[in-house]
From TrEMBL, chains A, B:
Keyword Membrane: no
One annotated GO biological process: negative regulation of DNA-templated transcription
GO molecular function, one term: transcription cis-regulatory region binding
Residues in the signal sequence: none
Highest classification ranks of the organism: Bacteria, Bacillati, Actinomycetota, Actinomycetes, Micromonosporales
Domain (HTH tetR-type) ranges: 12-72
Protein name (database record): TetR family transcriptional regulator
Length: 233, 233
DNA sequence: AGAGTAGGGTGTACGCCGTACACGTGTCAA
DNA sequence: TTGACACGTGTACGGCGTACACCCTACTCT
């Protein structure tokens, strides 16, 4: 009876509802705030109830990755391999920008889920139908690494820039010990005056590296590269 | 008095001793087993004693990264930029292979420590003295991303391969849903018969991608690439 | 010589976390 | 009617990071 009253307020749990709530919570509050207890609270349920739908927290995270993998645009057909790959990867990137926690979670996964395999399989397929050997495709996939997901490791994760004066002072201090880094920081700071934003243009950086790799792949393919007969130049 | 007896058995704590013990513990037991409590136990000390030497666990991890950054070989001089960069990065890679936990910790750091800045500064310097513009150097650094540290994101982190029969069965099942992935898996499995190891040759994969990027940088430099005048081909 | 002070190890306690386990309770099949 | 099953509940355990109050020692200053 009491449960029925509850049921009126909240639909019954399901694996899907749990996963979607988890994604929403991570989006809103950050991945560090995602605990089984908080998630349960969000769903108006006692923590242990979740364990009827996911085996443990690891599997919850796996499921969350699956959910967002499903948000990536379906693969395009009938276009040349490079555009197809780029398009798919940039779509993945858009998804990951909507879910900033996802990159860290993807990195931490220890074995791929079906949705992840589907995604990777489709990209491998693009190389293969684009005329790449199994060998070269294999190494290209490794070379792409996490870039397949549309993110690259940020070395300095966008420090919040204080007022310009402060910034100039810090730059000066930086220059004493790290002259080369300071040089770049200065150039970036200067660019900012024309472009908006508080750091590097991440999208540009990402696409720059992606094109560099794709062009490299193309060149190797044209030269009939194989791993036993290396001629990178 | 009691403390003096203790002192005979264990030297006094220091930031350095704490950090080294933390690195050793992470090496031996894995980063997941590294807790302030376990570390304190290892040092024969009460957990809170650590907090006189590191502000909190985050700073402990920062310090650990600094320790291993110090293990990277010093930069070489008087050789062309590409060899210098490659050499330094491969040295970093060797360090990281000795400390398998380090890549995950590095990724999780939120602001760079001095030793990290030193390392990055030296690599930036190699590009600059090698004739790269500030602009191109900047983007090259981003393109390298975590590869600067000698690791790349592994998408499938080396699943433990069971007996060959089992493996063949799994491959067959894989082929039904993920034909392209299976194709690669089959090729890798075949290679294994001649080469030892239970998966891809990580070192080869790493160097393949590194050379691809370095060659790409070189080509852009020769063509006088700038970010406002893009001609990647 | 005595008082004061700073540095560094200790003990206790709090509020989080993931989750094992035993227990309802509602639904449906036999 | 009875039993099985699915699923939400309640309690409890052992771990975590760390705040805070406390010593005890060594050293400085008068």
């Amino acid at each position: 009876m009491a449960q029925q009253v509850d049921d009126a307020r909240r639909p019954p749990l399901s694996r899907d509802r749990v996963l979607r709530a988890a994604v929403a919570l991570a989006d809103d509050a950050g991945i560090d705030s995602l605990s089984m207890r908080k998630l349960a609270q969000e769903l108006d349920v006692v923590p242990m109830a979740l364990y009827k739908h996911v085996a443990n927290k690891e599997q919850l995270l796996d499921g969350m990755v699956d959910v967002i993998a499903g948000e990536i645009d379906p693969p395009a057909h009938d276009i040349e391999w490079k555009s197809a790959v780029r398009q798919r990867i940039l779509s993945a990137r858009r998804v990951l920008l909507r879910h900033p926690w996802a990159s860290r979670v993807i990195e931490s996964r220890t074995s791929p889920t079906p949705a992840v395999l589907d995604y990777m399989n489709s990209i491998v397929g693009m190389f293969r139908t684009g005329g790449f050997s199994v060998d070269l495709t294999h190494h290209a996939m490794h070379a792409l690494g996490s870039r397949i997901w549309g993110f690259s490791q940020e070395l300095f994760p966008a420090s919040p820039s204080p007022d310009p004066e402060m910034q100039a002072a810090m730059l000066h201090q930086l220059a004493a010990r790290y002259p080369y880094i300071a040089e770049i920081a200065a150039a970036v700071a200067h660019d900012e005056e024309s472009v908006v934003g508080s750091g590097c243009d991440d999208q540009f950086e990402f696409e720059f590296a992606l094109e560099l790799l794709l062009d490299g792949f193309e060149r190797l393919r044209q030269h009939g590269w194989t791993s036993t007969n290396q001629s990178c130049a």
